[in-house]
Write a structure and sequence with these properties.
Radius of gyration: 22 Å
Shape: globular
Keywords: G-protein coupled receptor, Membrane, Receptor, Sensory transduction, Taste, Transducer, Transmembrane, Transmembrane helix
CATH topology: Rhopdopsin 7-helix transmembrane proteins
Organism: Pachyramphus minor
Distance between the termini: 56 Å
Membrane topology: Multi-pass membrane protein
Pfam family, one: TAS2R
Number of domains: 1
Helix content: over 70%
CATH class: Mainly Alpha
Oligomer: single chain
Strand content: under 5%
Protein name: Taste receptor type 2
């Protein structure tokens, strides 16, 4: 029989580890959403960067939430997962928010590159002028891409296999039959990931070249120092996402290879990566944004003061 998690030992440990990572990531992204929503209420409008961060934080929060529920059922109550409509709903919503947070992150990288990099190319200047108007359409395109992937995934799931038969002897066969039907979706999603990945790589290269040229021509005045700081902050965010995106893409390939093989340890490592990097990248985004950074530092200072008073 295929190797499966031992719920009382490794399974319980993996659930605890994933739970801690998911809760940390959910808290971080909930913080981003709450700060931006508060600013939205105060000034009744959002700039392009805040729009992207709001959708990114929301997507990541719900992705981590749904993914944790899926993983918890997979390890603790697998016979409740592969029934209709639980499996369809969790799988489709998980994929929707996963594609959404990845595509919105790519939009954030393109936005940073367009706003901060300096080139004399006419097309690039046109993008710099029009990028604020393009952001809502880019975000809408990201949501439509995610919705299409979710619909295709829902249609590809073999609904008759997701019945109410939860016999332990048939559970693994049901899972394999379902996983085998995901390969077309993996290919379509992979193509979308590669396209977005190329956009991230191009943004990083353009920003790096702009940083190098700016440093080469830099003179000692405050404006150029501010421009250098903006370049460096944007590069940190883009490079962190580059690492996260690379691991997500590798995870997709490994999932295609091991989803029907019962490689529990390998799948656990994939889940660890998928839960860790959205939180790490969101932390980098927080410390790259003055409003988010200052709000977080004030909260931490208040918590420290209350602890010291006790």
């Amino acid at each position: 029989s295929p190797e499966q998690f031992n719920v009382t030992s490794f399974g319980a440990t993996s659930v605890a580890a994933v739970t801690l990572q998911a809760l940390a990531g959910m808290w971080i992204n909930a913080f981003i959403v709450s700060v931006i929503c508060t600013a939205w209420v105060k000034k009744t409008t959002l700039n392009s960067n805040e729009k992207i961060l709001l959708l990114l934080g929301s997507s990541r929060f719900w992705y981590l939430c749904i993914s944790w529920v899926y993983y918890f059922l997979l390890i603790i109550y697998p016979n409740y997962l592969y029934v209709q409509p639980t499996f369809q709903l969790l799988t489709v919503t998980q994929r929707f928010f996963s594609c959404s947070e990845v595509s919105v992150s790519a939009c954030l990288c393109v936005f940073y590159c367009t706003k901060i990099a300096n080139f004399r190319n006419g097309f690039f200047i046109y993008l710099k002028v029009k990028i604020d108007r393009m952001v809502p359409w880019l975000l809408l395109g990201s949501l439509l891409f995610s919705l299409v992937i979710g619909i295709l995934l829902y249609e590809s799931i073999d609904k008759p296999q997701c019945n109410n038969s939860t016999g332990q002897e048939n559970l693994w066969k049901v899972r394999i039959k379902i996983d085998e039907q995901f390969f077309p979706i993996y290919l379509i999603t992979g193509f979308g990931y590669v396209t977005l990945f190329m956009a991230v790589i191009l943004s990083a290269l353009l920003l790096l070249f702009s940083l190098w040229r700016h440093k080469h021509n830099m003179q000692t005045n405050s404006m150029k120092d501010l421009s250098m700081d903006a370049h460096i902050k944007a590069m940190k965010s883009i490079l962190s996402f580059f690492v996260m995106y690379s691991i997500n893409f590798i995870s997709l390939i490994v999932t295609m290879i091991y989803s029907t093989g019962g490689k529990s340890a390998m799948m656990f490592l994939i889940y660890v990566f998928q839960y860790t990097f959205p939180g790490i990248h969101s932390l980098i985004v927080i410390f790259s944004n003055p409003r988010l950074k200052n709000t977080l530092l004030r909260i931490l200072l208040c918590v420290k003061c209350k602890v010291c008073m006790r």
